[in-house]
Specification:
globular, alpha/beta, 6-stranded parallel sheet, 16 strands
């Protein structure tokens, strides 16, 4: 076992690029060790390296080196939560068996209670309507909160702005599967609505509904997440019994694999007095058949439009981004956001999806290398979701950089960003290539020339729908259809748009 200096964890991407680093020396020494030896690195985790442990973990795993993380007391609660999320997903065996068993029993008991609440919804569906003449002073919000990232935080901000403008909402209660995580993201928002975050428990929903004016479903899609849908059924049932209106604002629909999930989603939709979706194709889903559905743009656009002045950008983010972009002033700056793929959603099967992902990364890296031969360029990778829930973008950054090595100038923003931090970076880029839906939305909101990559191989999904609804069908491609020619020609096309925008300014 070797204890590393904290700074070594910050050298992963420099090492991948072929630069001389202390981490590179350690790896070289390890390669020359006699066989049949095991090595463990003990890593002190500090505020400076906590967001860089993903890359270190992946690099060490490639070499058969195990890691042990030692959190130091100077970390903030937010940084400690980031580390705990990483450890619980990457090292679940590190949690003592009694604690795992206790958590399993608690989650099982909670699920059974949710199923019991959902079973009460088999009677005739009832809904109460609300219009702009009504006032919703206090709103209860449900959705996919708890697993959200900075893009979903922008959705929440947009929903709160709409509720305030249309219904005079002053107070909102948000129910989350991980309330501390949601509360942390909400701290990066600025709206005129007072916000409180609660654990998503139906008893608590019923309690607060008694003194509230409406239940709002907003934040994430109605999709094949049975445990979430079961909770939603219980919540809309409580609203029905208390004669409170239910509004579904700018939700996504699907994908689905299970019939029971489709049935629950249909049941939830029928109990709403108003429903709007964020993509025109979603409005045609059979789940919404026979219902009056409106199509509206993603609420994140509304919130991002309000961020003219980035008043919540903290000094740490500003300095980190300044260091990240140092030396790129005379280069073409291309933002890149990629995410790992969840293969279970592919209509052509997990095997097809895995093969498509492997081919995509190879072709994407080839395209970046080819474009770099045409002009001086720096690729700036930015994460929308750096945590393990929902798949960490930092894992994709590592995978891409591994393929690129030192052939191009690629820089990775290893961080857990807030909304204003992402906007501050985007406003210093020339264009972007994005895979996550809200990476595309953030870029479009800033008038940044952008290419979109849809991550549903074989079928297309919400990223494709976003670009088509924006009249940008030529700027988006499914990941299994992309080749290096498409990427290079697209970046050349964006270069022309950047030049035109610059001339107009």
């Amino acid at each position: 076992t070797f204890e590393l200096e904290p700074g070594i964890a910050c050298q992963v991407h420099d090492t991948i690029s072929g630069k001389s680093t202390r981490l590179g020396e350690l790896l070289e020494n390890w390669r020359h060790c006699p066989g049949n030896r095991t090595v463990q690195w003990s890593v002190p985790v500090t505020p400076a390296n906590v967001h860089r442990i993903e890359g270190l973990f992946l690099l060490a795993s490639e070499q058969g080196i195990s890691l042990e993380f030692q959190p130091l007391p100077e970390m903030s609660d937010r940084e400690r939560a980031f580390l705990d999320d990483f450890l619980s997903h990457r090292f679940p065996e590190a949690t003592p068996l009694p604690a795992r068993l206790s958590r399993f029993l608690l989650e099982g008991g909670s699920f059974l209670r949710d199923c019991s609440n959902a079973a009460r919804q088999f009677g005739p569906a009832q809904s109460w309507r609300v219009d702009s003449a009504n006032t919703i002073s206090t709103a209860l919000l449900i959705g996919a909160y708890g697993g959200e990232h900075v893009g979903d935080a922008a959705i929440l901000g947009g929903v709160l702005l709409r509720l305030h403008e249309e219904f005079g909402t002053r107070q909102a209660h948000v129910f989350s599967h991980r309330p501390l995580h949601t509360a942390r993201l909400a701290q990066g928002l600025s709206t005129p609505v007072n916000l409180s975050v609660h654990p998503y428990e139906i008893a608590r929903v019923e309690q607060l509904l008694a003194s509230s004016d409406a239940l709002i479903l907003a934040g994430g899609p109605l999709m094949d997440l049975p445990r979430v849908l079961v909770k939603h059924l219980g919540a809309v049932g409580a609203a029905s019994r208390l004669r409170r209106p239910v509004l579904a604002l700018c939700v996504g629909i699907g994908p689905f694999r299970r019939r029971i999930s489709r049935w629950m989603a249909r049941r939830i939709a029928r109990r709403t007095g108003f429903i709007s979706v964020r993509a025109s194709q979603a409005a045609a889903d059979p789940i919404l058949a026979g219902l009056t559905v409106q199509t509206a743009r993603d609420p994140a656009f509304d919130y991002l439009a309000s961020r003219k002045q980035l008043t919540l950008l903290h000094d740490g983010e500003r300095k980190a981004l300044g260091a990240l972009l140092e030396g790129t002033e005379d280069r073409f700056r291309v933002g890149v956001n990629l995410r790992p793929i969840r293969h279970l959603w592919s209509t052509k099967g997990a095997s097809y999806s895995r093969k498509a992902e492997d081919q995509f990364f190879l072709r994407f890296a080839e395209g970046l290398i080819r474009f770099a031969r045409l002009k001086p360029v720096s690729y700036i990778f930015f994460p929308m979701n750096p945590i393990q829930s929902g798949c960490s973008d930092l894992a994709s950054a590592y995978r891409l950089h591994r393929l690129l090595g030192g052939t191009v100038d690629m820089r990775v923003w290893e961080a857990d960003p807030d909304v204003d931090g992402v906007l501050h970076l985007l406003r210093q880029l020339d264009c972007a290539v994005t895979m996550r839906l809200h990476a595309g939305i953030f870029s479009i909101s800033q008038d940044l020339p952008v290419l979109g990559i849809d991550y549903y191989p074989g079928q297309g999904g919400k990223v494709e729908h976003l670009f088509k609804d924006q009249g940008r069908a030529g700027d988006v491609c499914r990941m299994d259809k992309i080749d290096s020619d498409w990427l290079v020609s697209g970046l050349v096309r964006l270069t022309g748009r950047v030049k035109l925008m610059t001339e107009r300014r």
